[in-house]
Amino acid sequence: MESVWIDLLVVFLKIIVILAVALGVGAYLTWVERKVAAHIQRRPGPMVVGWHGLLQPIADGLKLITKEDLFPRYGNRFLYNLALVLALVPATLVFAVVPFGPEFEVFGYKVKPILTDVNVGILLVFGLGSLAVYAIALAGWASNSKYPLIGSMRKAGVIISYEVAITFAVMGPLILAGTLSTYEIVQSQIEQKLWYVWVQPIAFVVYMFSLLAETGRIPFDIQEAEAELVTGFTVEYGGMKFGIFPLVEWYIEVLTLSAIGVVLFLGGWSPINIPFVGFVDPLFFLGPLSPYVWFLLKVTALFLFILWLHWTLPRYRIDQITEIAWKVMLPLALFNIVITSIIAPLIW
Amino acid sequence: MVKRMVSKPLSWIERLLFIDFIKGLSVTIRHAFSRTITTHYPYEKLTPPKRFRGFFGHKVVDGNEPQPAFDEWVERFNIQVEYGKSRCVVCMLCKRACPVPQLFEIEGKKLENGKRVVSVFNMNLMLCTFCGFCVDACPVDCLFQSDIHETASYTRRDSILDLETLEKIGRDWQMRREHEPDRIWIDDEQREKLWHENDLRLPEPEARGRHEW
Is B125 within the bounds of a domain? Predict the structure, then answer.
């Protein structure tokens, strides 16, 4: 009985920490994005509120919260609000299976820095990722307006195309690791002394493309397409309701998918890898903190890379996007699976 | 000369290695780590060029009037010329030239010595498009456009320029910028620097990848 209460307490603490970190960091990533975008365009970005505009997200949040709550005539109020919940919850739930570091002991009690180490973690990630399409479809439908509907239809098409590609892309690392649990995948990468990106470059490229498509980042941001659709499915949302959609789509989802990408391809919390030889850790002086810092560094690097892509590339057309998904990415991923499943059993 | 009209399609090796992506990314990363080129507006301000079309003003009589036009108009309308007052001769040509004439409200009055002088000159800038036709029409170089462009105000009343305000803007202008040579960005060091930094020499055309020809 004792241990059940302790378990519950630990889980509760983990939930609090993960939620606080995810939402707080998500809000502050708006600032990061604005800074990166500004510097790519040779502007300084937000500079006035706080040191180098550090308090800007708080100011924006205050402004959004105090704005009037508008609702379109003849819209469906229940679905309109449900879309918000459906967008926010699955995106944050993915953090439940993101492992932040190796197991450690507190007062003789073993703690894994992962909320639930379920043995089908990756399945959970993509199940929850597919739920995002409901949020967007409902948001477009419930708004009773043309632009949101067009935007949500486009986004639904893109997500459905790329869900297939991303699932097949992930298959390669799963074959190599032999497990679906995110924690075990990282463990097996450490045991095999190999980041899977070295042997699965095709899968990694397909994964990155699908990540950009699922989160609506720029080469695939037709659901927003400011030039033609204003802001797509968020047109009829106002105030903080408008703020939540980009927060979820552009920041929390990118963050979760980057974290999963790091877990699958870049060895989670392991330091720099020399394939088949071992790991080199330039951060050894941090001691037990070093794995966490490595994980954080990798996710940050991947996130910044995505921002960099966002502010560089132009936008594809909808037919080009689906063409890339079905004609290029899916065959590539299938080819990768075939090769991997032939060669992997010979080596391991 | 052979002019290439369509860019070469990417070769398969370029497609495979994302060469076009990498080219674009290298451009943006170079810009990301170079100096910003903006002005921090409320704290730093650029001086607009002398020909800027901002708020209107009346130049005042200071001995630099365009001659013989000014004397001719003064004689014709029997105008009282007073040093430091508006050069306006109440000819109404600005109102004739204006596409929205009702924004001008011009009246003259007769003094006791029989001479005339402008008494009312209101411009309602809420109707104004800053096209500058009135400035072109002014025969005595009185009405002009200054470099004042921060025109936001709390009341509609503030957007109506009366004779006093116009003269004030004119005096200010004649003190600050009247003698400046008519060149762009003359007194602005930062702007000047940027102008030369972006000293654009067109690169030699060479056949590179896609989207460049």
Answer: yes
First to last CA, chain B: 14
Chain B nearest C-alpha distance from A97 (Å): 32
In a domain? residue B78: yes
Nearest to B29 among A43, A308, A313 (CB): A308
One-letter amino acid at B68 equals P
Q: How many CB atoms lie within 10 A of CB A171?
A: 19
**Degrees to nearest 5, angle at CA B18 with B16 and B21:** 165
Minimal C-alpha gap between B31 and chain A (Å):
5
Q: Note whether residue B195 is domain-resident.
A: no
Of B29, B37, B40, nearest to A42 by CB-CB distance is B37
- Copy the structure tokens of residue A145: 């307006």
Q: Do the chains contact at A42 and B34, CB–CB below 8 Å?
A: yes
Peptide bond before B68: cis, by omega within 30 degrees of 0? yes
- The listed range with the strongest mean pLDDT (A27-31, A135-139, A215-219, B123-127) is B123-127
Rounded to whole angstroms, the Cα distance separating A323 from A333 reads 15
Q: Is residue B170 in some structural domain? A: yes
- Which CATH number is B117's domain given? 3.30.70.3270
Q: What pLDDT score does B213 carry? A: 41
A43 touches chain B (CB under 8 A): yes
Structure tokens at A173: 């690392």
Residue B115 has pLDDT above 60, yes or no: yes
Q: Which of A40, A309, A313 sits opposite B32 (nearest CB)?
A: A40
Residues of B with Cβ-Cβ distance to A218 under 8 angstroms = none
Is A47 near chain B, with CB under 8 Å?
A: yes
Nearest in space to A334 (alpha carbons), one of A178, A213, A206: A206
Give the total number of structural domains in chain B: 1
Q: Is A44 at the interface with chain B, CB within 8 A?
A: yes
Going by pLDDT thresholds of 50, 70 and 90, the confidence category of residue B208 is low
The answer to whether B36 contacts A313, with C-beta atoms less than 8 Å apart, is no
Task: Give the strand pairing for B116-124 and A278-280.
Answer: unpaired
Question: Can you tell me the distance from the alpha carbon of A149 to that of A147, in angstroms, rounded to the nearest whole number?
Answer: 5
pLDDT tens-digit series, residues A289-314: 888 888 889 999 999 999 898 888 88
ipTM of the predicted structure?
Answer: 0.76
What is the chain A residue with the closest CA to B28? A40
Instruction: Pull the structure tokens for residue A342.
Output: 């032939």
- CB contact under 8 Å between A42 and B29, yes or no, is no
| Residues of A with Cβ-Cβ distance to B23 under 8 angstroms | none
Answer for the pair A44, B38: CB distance below 8 angstroms, yes or no: yes
Euclidean distance between CA atoms A42 and B35, whole angstroms: 7
Task: Look up the pTM and report it.
Answer: 0.79
Share of chain A above pLDDT 90, in %: 5
Contacts of A51 (CB under 8 A, 6+ apart): none
The residue of chain B with its CA nearest to that of A310 is B25
Each residue of A50-97: pLDDT tens digit? 888 888 888 988 998 898 888 888 888 888 888 888 888 888 888 888
